[in-house]
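Blinded run. Sample ID left blank on purpose so nobody reads anything into the name before looking at the predicted structure. Input follows.
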Amino acid sequence: MGYQSPTSTRRRVLAAGGAVSAAAIAGCIGQEDGGDGDGDGNATANISDYQYDREEPDDEEAARSSSLEFLQPAERDEDFDPVVSFDSYSMQVANLVFDGLYEWDDEMTLEPKIADGMPEEQDGTTYVFQIQEGIQFHNGDEVTASDVAHSFTAPVEEETQNAATYAMIESAEAIDDYQLEVSLEHEYGPFTMMTMGVNVVPEDARTEDREAFNTDPIGSGPFQFADFQPGEYVELQRWDDYWDDPQPYVETIRFEAAPDDANRVAQVLAGDTDVIDTVPATEWDEVESEDGVRIHGSRSPSYMYLAFNCNEGQTTDPDVRRAVAHSFSMQQFVEDHLGAAADALVSPIPELTNEEGGWEFPTDEWADQMPEYDPDQAEQLLNDAGVPNDWEPRIIAPEGGPREALAERIGSRLNEVGYGADVQGMSFATLVDTYVTGNADDYEMYLLGWTGGPDPDVYYYNLFHESQEGVGQGHFYGGQGDFHDNILAARESADKEERRELYVSVTEEVLEYLPVLPAYSEHNTMAARESVKDLHAHPEVSYNPRIVSEYQNTWIDG
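Blinded prediction complete.
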């Protein structure tokens, strides 16, 4: 369930998580002393202040004629087949077209959707699922256990970028039309917390023409494709034969990309659009003070990070990586530039994952291990490592938004200690093709994000295990001792305490050798006209806008 975001991750947050927003560096470029900063961020607000009570329409018939326009903060990859899709913003569309076997509620707990209850577990590696009878896809075909089996196995068989999520599945076989048996190669702790939340695709319709299905998908969800203009917009139409309750009020939804923050914010403030994804920290106060507009927010399991090329170049030396980490203050950047829109991180595990998963990781100890701003130490480490004076590492990041701003901040700080940086903001598609090469001419550092869920495996396996080099990671970190073995052992265990200890060991090595430097967890935020009713931000970015669920049914009032 990880998507890199342009968080994350091609939630991927990619990321996610994290969303791309175009903003300049906040605050002056000067000494970073861990003070309050002077950026545009609102560091005092609590994201829970932007969650609201349920709302119900006075006139349901009028509500059912609603049309909603939703502006996304990044260009989509426009892969709408969930077997293939690996970016959060394509999945925002797909999650309204497809229903999952299970789906996350607003507290990141998997609840049955197409499944008829929780599975019957046998010996920790075999699960028998019952699915509900009579559910139909948009083309009229009934959803069967064979469709669910295909949804589980296709990502691995077709070697898509989602393969790691399902790689532990040895077989998925229909017992009959409404029963499915899934066997795992080994025990896998995250299976019931995450992997069961697979979007169900119609096997026959999909395999008849996979390329066509990817841009004109057929699901069993509350909306179906109505119009699609590549690079411009996607329009969904309510499916009036939707099998589940509640039935959605919104009749049509139009998705458009609006990567420029100022333009996106201006449109919602002027009433030219209904909802925008991602409220930039630099525009937060303006949006919040505008009459007729509300900010909606939720903490997220997103993880943004600075990664170093450990394959080629100066950054193969851990002291060079430490020097870069000491050259600036990540905490200060987050406070200055993101304010209420994010929380600084001290590990690859977002705090929401730590809390909702009940992991009780030693985050206070990890905070003490995070490199502090110390330009003198940075300069000394670079000198001792023999880095030439003309070193200007290439730092690549999604163009626009806080990650490009962070790259610029790092470049400025390196300049202050006698070096420099070649900062390149790239379209997400270009970045995805670049950061996995391991070539120092392409990059020595990159900024990306990942969004997952309540289990650490999504982060550690996808972003650190050696099997994922060139797939979801571009740092090519070889590790010390049992680093990769520990990640794999944690993945193949169902003993939570054993897994926790393994992840603690892995995290301590990450913080010591810094193949990546944890950055921040960006909250999921939306700004909507007050006429948009019963809108709630979900912790998982690819679930926004949720539109209809047990806890919301969005509509436009008037």
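Unblinding after everyone has recorded impressions. The chain has a mean pLDDT of 90.
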